[in-house]
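Re: beginner question about structure tokens

> Can someone show what the tokenized structure looks like for a real chain? I only ever see the sequence side.

Sure, here's an example I had lying around. Input first:
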Amino acid sequence: MTSTTDPDPTSASTPATPQPRNPLHGKTLEAIVTELVDHYGWAGLGERIPVRCFTHDPSVASSLKFLRKTPWARDKVEGLYLFMLREARRQGQ
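And the corresponding structure tokens:
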């Protein structure tokens, strides 16, 4: 018989592992999309990642709704964000 008060070792109360070298750590999807739009504009973002939420009547809200449901598109957005950060670092910005 097990007690119902035993702590679960996999519970969410364990502290998160710090990830100082992960540029995506602590970034919300909204912040990533906003930075990409500020850098490339909607047209540039639609050229680099040709999905409807970036090319037809784009908005941050519609993009977030689509990206949260579509893992492959979210991966592309995160990859483009990392590329943008690398290019900015190379140019010394």
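Each token stands for a local structural state, so reading them left to right follows the chain. The mean pLDDT is 85.
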